[in-house]
Amino acid sequence: FYLPDSSRVILTGDSRLTYNAQFGKTNRELSLRGEAFFRVKRDTSKPFIVETSLIQVEVLGTSFQVIAQKLQAEVFVEKGRVRQKTRKYP
Question: Rounded CA gap, 20 and 14, in Å?
């Protein structure tokens, strides 16, 4: 399916993707549980941010896959570059 900013997402099986009503207008932040492939429309004014329970992935425009399971998170970049941050817990 396509997100409001025209980025394309392919979800697998029991995956869940959530984002707020402002997605594409004021931000491009979403939350992923499971596995998804993203083909992100480039927008240098609004980075595309994928939050999982373990990592945060930030891009401007690229193609990549995120796998976010309970104790494991992986990012596979098809084209372009991403910045990955490990989330910290108290």
Answer: 20
